[in-house]
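Hey, resending since the last one bounced:
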Amino acid sequence: MPAFLAKYLSQLVVAGLLFAAGGLLAFAAIHEVNGMVKDARKTAISERDALWKGKIAEANAAKEAAVSAQLRAVMLAGEQIRAAETEAQTKLKEMERANAALPGGAACGLGPERVRILPR
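The structure tokens again:
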């Protein structure tokens, strides 16, 4: 009887060992696949972050360019306004000098000489 049991038990032991080895190989394969998935995930996350950092940098550069363009436009408009004010002040002083040089500066009302210096 022990020979009979040994004959069938040896086949069961070999089958069990093969089953255990298959389980270990399956566990190792699953562990390796999980590692590959984690690596792929980290790579995808870093690529996505790099893409969005680049887009944010581009948007910030465009915003800075727009702000500096607006600042230049404001400065140019301010210079133009100051130049127009200076010109108006100069013209006013010239008109006052021309008015004072006319005869009868103390007269009341507008004479023909004074009407000629008015802007048209």
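Residues 2-101 form the longest helix (100 residues).

Sorry for the duplicate.
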